[in-house]
Amino acid sequence: MSPRRASRKSTSGSIDANILTLKFMAMHMKVGVLALQGDVSEHVAALKSALIQSSIKGCVVQVRRPSELECLEGLLMPGGESTTIAKQLDRFGLRKPIIEMAGSGIPVMGTCAGCILLSSEILDQGIRPVEPLGLMDISVRRNAWGRQVESFEMPLKIQGLDSEFHGIFIRAPRIERIGAEVESLAQVEKEHVMVRQKNILGLTFHPELSHDPRVHALFLGMLKP
Ligand code: GLN
Predict the structure, then answer these.
(1) Distance between Cα 57 and ligand 1 center (Å)
(2) pLDDT tens digits, residue range 160-199?
(3) What is the CATH number of the domain that holds 24?
(4) Residue numbers of the domain that contains 87
(5) Domains contained in the chain, number
């Protein structure tokens, strides 16, 4: 176990908490972006801005191989096309290590297709079924807001942000069920569009396209030194 991982344990008591804060300020965070398909460079740029906004020293790396998951403090799975990303996950042997990484408590954020892959159930699968990772107790329906031309934008009230965030929805999935452990952080017409279950964060919109790093900063806030 690396020293970085070992330090996750000592969170109780005020002295420990102070030490943890100092470590957080001194340490260098490494955040990965799954780079198989989709909005990879946009997420890398948004995470870099969020690191600066949050005054966290760190770097953002692109992940295509299981070895590149090692020593990450967090992983972001971009939107794109879930059928393609799922195929590539299996092709590069990334499915099991990502499940294990999330199981060990490391935060994972998924946007749109990434959120579909985080889910435990994809409803009404067509001729090209996608096997999700099952990291979050939610049921999703792909493309349920309509086709590409029916993509939309709207201001969102997001728990943890003090003003509205510009939400961009592109062939977004609907989250049709959330489990008892899942918290809803933002809604559109009573539909959940941002959900969290412990260390897993799922969004059906594209924060990387809004030129506003606050959602990525919220994710960085979930990372532990
Ligand atoms: N509709 C896509 C899918 O099912 C997701 C779209 C997106 O990520 N913008 O994978």
Answers:
(1) 32
(2) 999 999 999 999 999 999 999 999 999 999 999 999 999 9
(3) 3.40.50.880
(4) 3-222
(5) 1
